[in-house]
Write a structure and sequence with these properties.
By secondary structure, the protein is mostly beta strands. The mean pLDDT is 91. The strands form 8 sheets. It has a 4-stranded antiparallel β-sheet, with no helix packed on it. Strand 14 and strand 15 form a beta hairpin. The protein starts with a helix and ends with a strand. It is globular. 11% of the residues lie in helices and 53% in strands. It has a domain of 110 residues: YVTN repeat-like/Quinoprotein amine dehydrogenase (Methylamine Dehydrogenase, Chain H).
């Protein structure tokens, strides 16, 4: 009798265990399918008629839209409601976004305005024409100013009750070179600038690291530098407040510790670099020959420079960006979405040119803009 009871208990336990395994397997399969399914179309959930001109530009803004032109800027939600706005008169507005802060600068003029969504904007007036601006996550702004024989990058705090100008970084064109690119750390405490120096018939490309904490003050803010010799520096992007990536013509270099910069990783690519992008977890490089889509390859790296995914993509595109777990290729009449694990999520030919395709805050939902309409669409099929 006891043996029979034990046998039944074992059978019951085995049945329960088998059922649990089957259920877990089903959950894994369903989850994998859901996370990696491919979509072939879309459904329109909302349409909003655009009441603006072709001179208006749109940017992705934390799952919403940022709209700007020569006479103003505004943030819009999915229903078209204005979340905040600001007015100005600019001939060539240029926008930069970092978390809740947005800066609009009139390139070639002397005006820059910073918005945080809670006030009409804080204005900065410069003494020289503006070449470019960058904003940090705490509202500080780096402004590149051009003069005939010198450049200067000023750091401002437009929300300060006292002096707005915090730091001046001058450079003489003949001695220091032309300031080509720069990026401001998210915490506003450091900046990296690339220079192109002409000397003895050759061109040298270099980067300089500046830090505005007590460490930098002891060294007149300059805390490091590196020459890339004749390798062209294409772009500088902070990965976080303590790491920055320098893109050159044949790869990239990651530096860490903005108080005492040192190389963390170097990656050299044999193929031509066509596009680059970064987010807070990854570095993206698309390689291939210009004008040829047959040999395009997506390379995805960790912030430590380790390659984690490669994928050949034969698509025409004009822009690429990373959003959440996706790599979004847009432009011309096509849209292609590749997941960061290498699976294809969406590939579609709209049959006409369009302006923007941006993600909203919801899964599989996007803004789809053409010259007349803002559509909220959800992937399907």
């Amino acid at each position: 009798m006891e043996k029979e009871k034990k046998r039944r208990k074992l059978l019951l336990f085995g049945s329960i265990a088998a059922a649990v395994v089957v259920a877990l397997t089903a959950i894994v399969i369903i989850s994998y399918y859901y996370m990696n399914r491919s979509f072939s179309g879309y459904d329109v959930e909302r349409e909003i008629t655009r009441e603006d001109s072709n001179n208006v530009e749109y940017l992705s803004y934390h799952g919403k839209l940022l709209k700007y032109s020569r006479d103003g800027i505004s943030a819009l939600d999915k229903t078209g409601n204005v979340l905040w706005n600001g007015g100005y008169e600019m001939q060539q507005p240029q926008v930069d976004i970092c978390e809740n802060y947005v800066t609009v600068a009139d390139i070639g003029s002397k005006t820059c305005i910073v918005y945080d969504g809670t006030n009409p904007g804080k204005e900065i007036e410069t003494t020289l024409p503006i070449g470019r601006t960058k904003v940090s996550a705490d509202g500080k702004v780096a402004v590149l100013l051009h003069d005939d024989d010198s450049d200067v990058i000023n750091i401002y705090d437009p929300f300060s009750a006292g002096e707005q100008l915090l730091v001046e970084i001058p450079s003489n064109v003949l001695d220091d070179g032309y300031a080509m690119d720069f990026d401001l750390a998210p915490d506003g405490e450091s900046i990296v600038i690339s220079y192109l120096v002409a000397a003895n018939g050759t061109m040298e490309n270099k980067v300089c690291f500046y830090n505005f904490t007590e460490v930098g003050q002891d060294q007149n803010t300059l805390v490091g530098g590196k020459s890339f010799e004749q390798k062209m520096i294409s772009q500088i992007k902070y990965l976080d407040s303590d790491r920055v990536v320098i893109f050159t013509e044949d790869g990239f270099t990651i530096f860490k510790d903005m108080k005492k910069p040192e190389i963390q990783a170097e990656v050299t690519l044999k193929e031509e670099m066509k596009s680059i992008a970064v987010d807070d977890e990854n570095i993206l490089v698309v390689t291939g020959v210009a004008g040829n889509i047959d040999d395009q390859v997506v390379h995805l790296y960790t912030l430590q420079g380790k390659e984690k995914m490669t994928k050949q993509v034969t698509i025409q595109y004009s822009q690429v960006e990373m959003t959440r777990n996706e790599i979004l290729f847009t432009g011309n009449q096509n849209c292609f979405i590749l997941r960061k694990n290498g699976t294809e999520k969406f590939s579609f030919d709209f049959g006409k040119n369009y302006d923007c395709f941006f993600p909203t805050t919801r899964e599989n939902q996007y803004f789809f803009l053409d010259e007349t309409t803002i559509r909220i669409v959800k992937l399907s099929g």
